[in-house]
Design goal:
Blueprint: H1 10-14, E1 32-33, H2 34-58, H3 65-85, E2 91-92, H4 94-114, H5 127-136, H6 139-158, H7 175-254, H8 260-283, E3 295-297, H9 298-306, E4 315-322, E5 331-333, H10 336-352, E6 356-363, E7 367-374, H11 421-431, E8 435-440, E9 446-453
Parallel strand pairs: 4-6
Antiparallel strand pairs: 1-2, 3-5, 6-7, 7-9, 8-9
Length: about 475
C-alpha cells in the first residue's frame, strides 16, 4: 500500500500536481476553466509588453527594461507551460485557481516595484485578480487573495524603484497624496471584491435553487407520464387478455374436469382475469397514479393535495368561502406545478402546526386566493423578510447554507431541511401565473397566501409548462 505524506509541502499547496488538487473533487467542482484564466493572462502579458516598450522607446523614459522583461517573460512561460500540459477544458479547483491568481498579483507587484510602486497609474490593476476570485471562488479563497493584494500594495507603497519620468523633471509626490492613493487602492480592492462576491453568491444560490425546482417539477411530470402510460397499457392490453380468458374458458369446458390439462386451463383463465382486474383499476381515473391536466373543483383539488399530510394528531381543514354570493366554485387544472407548489406549502404548515392547519379558498370575479394557516410558532423574525429566497430555513437543527457558502457542497437528493421547500413552492406558483406572500398571524402561527387572476389556473387552457432556467 502506498503511503501518503500527511503534511504536504507549501509548494504543493501553492500549485498542486495531478495527484493533488488539480483533479476536481466531486464535492468542490471547479467553477472556472484554465483556458479562461490563461486567455486573461495572455491579455495581461500583451498589455504589459506594449506599455513597457511604449514608455521606454516611445516616450524615452528610463526604466529597468531587462528586469521588467524577465517578469513579463516569466508569466508568458508559465502560461505556455500550463497550456501545453493541461486540456483547454480543464477546470481548476478553488485552491488551484487561488494560486493561479495569487501569482498574477505577485507578478504585477514585481512590475510596479520596478516602475514606481503605487505612483504608477497601473497600480489600479490590483483590483482585477481579486474581482475575478470574488466572482468564481468561495469566500475564504477570495479573502486570502485580497489579503495578498493588500500586502503587495502596502509593500510597494513603501519600497519601490523610481517612477519612469524625464530626468530633468523630478516628480516628488507629497506623502499625504501617496497615502490617499494607498487608501483608495485598499478601499477599492475591499469594496469591489465584497460587492462582486455577494452578486456571484446570490446568482449561484438562485441557480442551485432553480435546479432543485426543476428536479421537483420533473418528478411530477414523470409521475404524470406513469399515470398516462398505465391507462394506455390498460386500454391496449384489455382486449388480448379478454381473448385469452375466453379461449382458456373454452378449453376448460372441453377438457375432462379431472385431467391435468383442465387444471392448467383453469389456472390460465384465473390469471388472465386477475391481470384484467389490475389493468381495470389502473385505467380508472380516480385511482390512477397521477391525473395530469384534469380539471377539478378547487375544493376537491385542495382536499386531494392535503390528504397525504393528514394524521391522527393533525387536522387539516378545507374551508371554501366565495366572496360573491351565488358565484360557482372554480374548476382548476390539475397541473404538476400547482400540485407540487401547494403541496409544499401545506407540507410545511403541517410540519410546524401543533394541532390544526386551515386551508382557506376564496374567489370572486377577479381572482382566486388560497391561504394556508397553521397554529405553530410562525416564521422567525430574522428570516420573515427573506422568505422565498433559496436556502433560507427556520427549522431547528437542520441544514441550510451559511452566508459564506455559494451552493451545496454535496449533491442533494431533496429539499427537506435546506430551505428550498418554500422557494420551490413560490417559483412553481409564479410559473402558473400566481403570486405568493408569507406573514405571521397576530393570534399565533403563520399564513401563506397564493393568489391567481381568474383564468390563470381555471381558464380554458391548462397552465403551460414552467420555464425555470
Amino acid at each position: 500500500m502506498t503511503e501518503i505524506d500527511p503534511e504536504p509541502s507549501w509548494l504543493s499547496w501553492l500549485w498542486p500536481t495531478d495527484e493533488d488538487d488539480l483533479l476536481i473533487l466531486p464535492s468542490r467542482p471547479g467553477r472556472v476553466r484554465l483556458r479562461t484564466l490563461s486567455n486573461l493572462r495572455w491579455l495581461a502579458v500583451g498589455g504589459q509588453s506594449v506599455t513597457l516598450l511604449l514608455v521606454h522607446f516611445g516616450l524615452g523614459y528610463p526604466l529597468p527594461l531587462l528586469a521588467c522583461a524577465i517578469a513579463v517573460a516569466a508569466s508568458a512561460a508559465l502560461n505556455g507551460f500550463l497550456t501545453l500540459r493541461y486540456e483547454p477544458t480543464h477546470r481548476l479547483s478553488n485552491r488551484a485557481a487561488t494560486a493561479y491568481l495569487a501569482y498574477d498579483v505577485v507578478q504585477l507587484a514585481a512590475l510596479l516595484y520596478l516602475t514606481g510602486g503605487i505612483m504608477n497609474p497601473f497600480s489600479l490593476m490590483f483590483i482585477a485578480p481579486v474581482v475575478i476570485a470574488a466572482a468564481t471562488l468561495d469566500l475564504g479563497n477570495t479573502l486570502l487573495l485580497a489579503i495578498i493584494a493588500l500586502v503587495a500594495v502596502s509593500v510597494i507603497g513603501v519600497v519601490h524603484k523610481p517612477l519612469p519620468w524625464p530626468p530633468d523633471e523630478p516628480l516628488a509626490l507629497p506623502p499625504l497624496f501617496l497615502g490617499g492613493i494607498w487608501a483608495s487602492l485598499v478601499i477599492g480592492i475591499g469594496f469591489t471584491s465584497i460587492y462582486a462576491w455577494r452578486i456571484a453568491s446570490e446568482a449561484a444560490r438562485m441557480q442551485a435553487g432553480l435546479s432543485a425546482t426543476q428536479l421537483a417539477l420533473a418528478r411530477e411530470h414523470r409521475m404524470a407520464s406513469i399515470g398516462a402510460l398505465a391507462a394506455a397499457a390498460a386500454h391496449e392490453l384489455g382486449t388480448p387478455l379478454g381473448t385469452i380468458a375466453i379461449v382458456s374458458r373454452e378449453l376448460e369446458r372441453s377438457l375432462p374436469s379431472d385431467s391435468p390439462e383442465a387444471e392448467d386451463a383453469r389456472l390460465l383463465r384465473q390469471e388472465a382475469e386477475r391481470c384484467r382486474g389490475i389493468l381495470t383499476r389502473l385505467a380508472r381515473p380516480e385511482e390512477s397514479v397521477m391525473r395530469a391536466l384534469d380539471r377539478l373543483p378547487l375544493g376537491a383539488l385542495l382536499d386531494d393535495i392535503a390528504s397525504p399530510h393528514r394524521n391522527g394528531d393533525l387536522a387539516i381543514q378545507i374551508e371554501m368561502a366565495p366572496a360573491t354570493q351565488g358565484l360557482s366554485e372554480p374548476k382548476v387544472w390539475r397541473s404538476p406545478a400547482l400540485l407540487h407548489g401547494l403541496g409544499n406549502v401545506i407540507a410545511n404548515a403541517a410540519d410546524f402546526a401543533h394541532a390544526r392547519v386551515r386551508v382557506i379558498a376564496i374567489w370572486n370575479e377577479r381572482e382566486i386566493r388560497v391561504s394556508v394557516q397553521d397554529d405553530g410558532p410562525g416564521f422567525a423574525p430574522d428570516i420573515i423578510e427573506r422568505i422565498g429566497e433559496p436556502y433560507v430555513t427556520s427549522r431547528p437543527g437542520t441544514y441550510a447554507l451559511g452566508d459564506t457558502e455559494l451552493s451545496p457542497t454535496d449533491a442533494f437528493t431533496g429539499q427537506q431541511g435546506m430551505g428550498l421547500g418554500f422557494f420551490i413552492a413560490k417559483t412553481l406558483i409564479e410559473q402558473t401565473g400566481g403570486t405568493m406572500r408569507a406573514r405571521n398571524v397576530s393570534s399565533g402561527g403563520a399564513r401563506v397566501t397564493a393568489r391567481w387572476p381568474r383564468g390563470a389556473i381555471d381558464g380554458d387552457q391548462a397552465p403551460g409548462r414552467a420555464r425555470l432556467l
